[in-house]
Write a structure and sequence with these properties.
By secondary structure, the protein is α/β, with parallel strands linked by helices. Helix 9 links the parallel strand 6 and strand 7. Helix 4 runs antiparallel to helix 23 and helix 22 crosses helix 23. The longest helix is centred in the last third of the chain and has 25 residues. It is globular, with a radius of gyration of 29 Å.
Length: 587
């Protein structure tokens, strides 16, 4: 058993060196097991890298896993019977119900309990409690220690109440993803996959307490553990404090070293990747920046050719237009491929639509590495508006929000004519919509009444059976969700989503096409979760609408790169770039 650190600056070749070493060892010892553990979003790229680097172009006795995937692999090997994993969407759904139940007991947060933003904050807090092993006792201690600060104490008491109710609701039914590693920590010693294997941890700058608990067990049962970390020799000798550059890496090294020493595990001397940085070997200016950025004290003045430039634009759209023009120039005039170029921003929410639309106008193929929410999707809008329509008894706003989704099978001209008549005659409520309209308005003559009534009848034919099923006395959540599903089936929502996907594909918008291909599946998965969690409950349409909204807020769809030669567009946290030659940083 041994712990080894591989250290070097950004782009120095730490991952390449570590993976090359693992591949060489795996070839020399084909009966031994080698595990490479990386953050979840890097697993596919790491698999691709290993296959490309391996002489036989296969992973063979090397497994590339994230913490969560490793947990599933061990549980499957041992036949461990674990509770169903509660993902973020499930947490949102349960928390919505919890907040409704405990609202009368809350003091500070009572008025905020119904807001989606508050629900998301509480979900984040509970997730951190799991990651940092904060439970009932710790919360009780916090309440006692803050009695001299009444407002803070009241907030902690409210959070404590929510935490207890949440735990009671999931007890013996579900386990959160944060608690998964605690279960794994107790089981990992029995695993033949892990016992005696060599493990590489790559791509991390730190770990949570529950991860350190797992890593302690991993150190005890594996043959050796190798960890890569970004660190300069200057910072390593200076020992940066928390908050400074390399502070996170330094803290990680110290905590892992302490765990190894406490358990009598040898800690080898760190292996330093030699300079200059491999990634910046052809760029003297970037190599200089990487080496001296934020360094205290004196350093040599840069005298070489500058390959970094800064440009100002009057707006984000002008910024993206300039970037598109530069990419067009690089590809057409300088011989670059689109895949040689990447665009990064710290604000994907603010930029990704601009990049998507402007790049499409300029004919620049791009893979936008961004998880999109589905709230603006017409099928989601259809579901929300159908429930609102029943809740508000066919109010004008709810009816035409439903009709304007484009999923009702009615033409725009039919909907426009109907809307004009409804506004002119001030039609509101189910009773008015059920009756045939016979009176012309000042602006709409009697000749138009027949097509208007025909449109009204088509809409009511869709909604009357749906309303009957939803309003049935004693209807359970399962019955209400079945009625909602039947409405979508009657409107051929799945087929319409496929039609949209084909349209976007024909327009060359591959990312939007793939997004629409996923929508139906994600909606059905949400329906199944709601039925599984609340199936036998009896709730109001308003409560069901709130639960669905919470689920829709949580769902994000991601797409894989649809082509080989595309500009990668991503953010500073999620996106991992390999082998690029030109980088644009927006914002």
């Amino acid at each position: 058993m041994a712990l080894q650190f591989i250290l070097g600056g950004s782009g120095s070749g730490k991952s390449y060196y570590a993976m090359s070493s693992f591949i060489a060892e795996a070839i020399a010892h084909p009966k031994e097991q080698y595990l490479i553990v990386v953050p979840e979003q890097f697993t596919m790229q790491t698999q691709k890298d290993i296959v490309r680097m391996h002489p036989n172009h296969g992973v063979l006795n090397i497994d590339i896993l994230s913490f969560e995937r490793l947990a599933y692999r061990v549980f499957e090997e041992l036949g461990t019977d674990i509770l169903e994993i509660l993902d973020d969407t499930g947490k949102n759904l349960i928390l919505r119900k919890v907040l409704e139940q405990v609202k009368p007991q809350l003091t500070v947060f009572a008025r905020k309990a119904g807001y989606q933003g508050f629900l998301e904050e509480i979900k984040s807090v509970l997730s951190e409690f799991g990651q940092y092993r904060i439970g009932e006792k710790a919360l009780a201690d916090m309440e006692q220690k803050t009695t001299e600060k009444p407002l803070l104490s009241a907030k902690i008491k409210d959070i404590h109440t929510i935490y207890n109710s949440f735990q009671a609701m999931i007890q013996e039914r579900y386990v959160t993803s944060e608690a998964l590693l605690e279960v794994l920590s107790r089981k990992i010693g029995e695993s033949q996959i892990v016992r005696g294997s060599s493990v590489l941890l790559d791509g991390y700058t730190g770990f949570t307490p529950v991860q350190y608990q797992f890593l302690e067990q991993l150190l005890l049962c594996s043959r050796n553990v190798v960890v890569t970390a970004i660190m300069s020799k200057y910072a390593y000798e200076k020992q940066p404090e928390e908050g400074e550059l390399f502070g996170l890496s330094r803290s990680m090294l110290e905590k892992l070293t302490a765990l190894a020493q406490q358990n009598g595990i040898a800690v080898k001397e760190p292996f330093w990747i030699p300079e200059p940085s491999y990634r910046f070997r052809d760029s003297e200016s970037l190599a200089y920046l990487e080496r001296y950025l934020f360094m205290d004290g004196t350093h040599p003045v840069y005298q070489g050719k500058n390959q970094v430039s800064v440009h100002c634009a009057v707006s984000p759209s002008e910024e993206v237009v300039y970037t598109a023009a530069q990419i067009y120039h690089l590809v057409r005039e300088k011989g670059y491929r689109y895949r040689d170029i990447a665009v990064i921003t710290a604000d994907m929410e603010g930029y990704y639509r601009l990049v998507r639309d402007i790049f499409a106008e300029q004919g620049i193929p791009a893979f936008i590495d961004h998880k999109r929410d589905i709230l603006g999707n017409p099928c989601v809008e259809l579901i929300q508006s159908a429930l609102l329509l029943l809740e508000q008894d066919f109010s004008y706003e709810a009816v035409f929000r439903y009709l304007k989704t484009g999923f009702t099978g009615l033409a725009e001209t039919e909907v426009d004519l109907l809307e004009n008549y409804v506004l002119a005659m001030n039609i509101r409520g189910l009773s008015r919509w059920k009756k045939e309209w016979e009176k012309p308005s000042k602006t709409i003559p009697a000749a138009y009444l027949e097509p208007i009534n025909r449109t009204r009848a088509k809409m009511m034919e869709q909604l009357v059976p749906f309303r009957t099923a939803m309003k049935k006395k004693g209807a359970t959540v399962k019955q209400m969700m079945t009625a909602l599903y039947q409405l979508l089936e009657n409107l051929q929502a799945r087929e319409q989503l496929l039609h949209y996907a084909e349209y976007f594909q024909a327009e060359g918008q591959m990312d939007r096409s793939r997004e629409y291909l996923q929508i139906w599946k994600t909606i059905m998965e949400l329906f199944e979760k709601i039925v599984r969690l609340f199936g036998d409950m009896r709730i109001s349409i308003r409560e069901l609408s709130d639960i669905l909204e919470s689920g829709f807020h949580e769902i994000k769809v991601a797409v894989i790169p649809p082509g080989l030669d595309e500009v990668t567009v991503g953010d500073t946290i999620r996106t991992r770039l390999t082998n690029i030659k030109v980088l644009f940083f927006l914002g």
